[in-house]
Amino acid sequence: MAELINLNKARKARDKAAARAQAAENRAKHGVTKAAKAATKLEAERARRNLDGVKRED
User: Fold this and answer.
1) Cα 8 from Cα 13, distance rounded (Å)
2) How many CB atoms lie within 10 A of CB 21?
3) Which of 12, 37, 39, 49 has its CA 20 to 30 A from that of 2?
4) How far apart are CA 14 and CA 12, in angstroms?
């Protein structure tokens, strides 16, 4: 005898998997948020200034 499946649950699971795949594709396509980019840039600038501040002149 064949195993019974709930077609409604199978359809919903298939749709959820497709939505997750689409979300992953969109995340890769659009990258990071503007706030995250600004935070990264600020952190790099702060590190550069800190490094310049501790340099010794020869």
Assistant:
1) 9
2) 10
3) 12
4) 5
The answer to whether position 15 is within a domain reads yes
Task: Classify 33 as helix, strand or coil.
Answer: coil
Assess if residue 1 is contained within a domain. Answer: no
Residue 16, domain member (yes or no) = yes
Tell me which amino acid residue 6 is.
N
Mean pLDDT of 20-45: 92
0.70 surpassed by pTM: no
Q: How far apart are CA 22 and CA 12, in angstroms?
A: 15
Residue 33 has pLDDT above 90, yes or no: no
